[in-house]
Description:
Layout: H1 5-11, E1 22-26, H2 38-44, E2 49-54, E3 72-73, E4 80-83, H3 93-96, E5 101-105, H4 116-130, E6 133-137, H5 176-186, E7 192-196, H6 224-233, E8 253-256, H7 261-270, E9 276-283, E10 297-304, H8 312-326, H9 347-352, H10 365-376, H11 381-385
Pfam families: NamZ_C, NamZ_N
Protein name: DUF1343 domain-containing protein
Amino acid sequence: MVHFGIDSITSGQPPAWKSSRLGMVTNHAATTRDLQPSREALLKRGFNLVKLFSPEHGLDVRGADGHKMKDGSDVLTGLPVVSLYSDKLAPSEEDLADIDIVLFDIPDIGSRFYTYLWTMTHVLEACALNGKKLVILDRPNPVSGKMELAEGPLLEEAQASFIGRWPMPVRHSCTIGELASYFNATRNINANLEVIRCGGWDRGMFQPDWKTRFVPTSPAIQHFQSMLLYPGLCLLEATNISEGRGTEHSFCAAGAPWMDGNAIAGILNEMGLDDVIVSPVRFTPAAPSVKYQNQECGGVRMEVRQPAYFQSVSYGLILLRLIKQIYPKHFEWKPYPTLVNPTGENHLDKLLGIAGSEQLFELPLPRFIAEITKRTQCRNWGKEMEDYLLY
């Protein structure tokens, strides 16, 4: 049975630091195996939790993508909440002054541009700077820890941003605890770091194998299929194609008012990729600030049938190239403004982590396939991480 780091400290022998003044970086998606919010579980078991910190989307996991989150108070525990997706991305010296130890418990989804990972790195640096211990309450990677499924491109340092600070693949196949240990050593951060391991997980498992109910990790990641497809379909953010935000198909669909889903579905299904089924779909994005709000879109919906073989980044790149080729008069690259990139410029470069990425899509199809095959391979990543893998 899979259990999380939070379960290890609330169900077993309590740690020596239980009575220390604890700050916690968390959100409402972080729960025990039995779905009790982690912060509540700690308080009910007598841990001296005094302050909370929240990432993008806020403590309640409802904030819109890329929107600034405010400080506040937690309605569940009454504790003060300091936003780390605001004018600052890391706790300040003042924030940490009345804290002895910082806990980090936020579910990740295994992709470089999902920002919870980078919040962790800012917290890691802040703890090192201010002489505070950081304890990662680890969780399994929901899209598996299979290193053969890791996909690039590897981030180029010049493309560093809050959706990718340091070199690593788009799909990393690691846990937050493993990456914390890796960055702490390789970036010479040298924080006092402890990782509380999760248990019962092997690297071949996907989230449905855990036998726990799925908990949405952000407004647009509402089910396991979204997690699987996200590393590839998130690339649609840099275009005028809807990625399904504001619908039940978020990150499982691609569409626009001018698209015909039948044509694209036919081509993709004819490619013979047995691990994913593509269907025509019509949807109307309804959430505020999403593409084509209240406009009916035609497009395609994808369902991954064989997660153990599915390569999301490659698939997303091919999907983009196909739509651009079929709709040359409609397709556009678009900025994607967020708190951390207010102009939204060069968003595709930041997502893929490489300069001039839009130019790849001007290549003839055979050269395009060859180039993305080369760039998405990251055979050395497993060896790079070898000394830091915990499972």
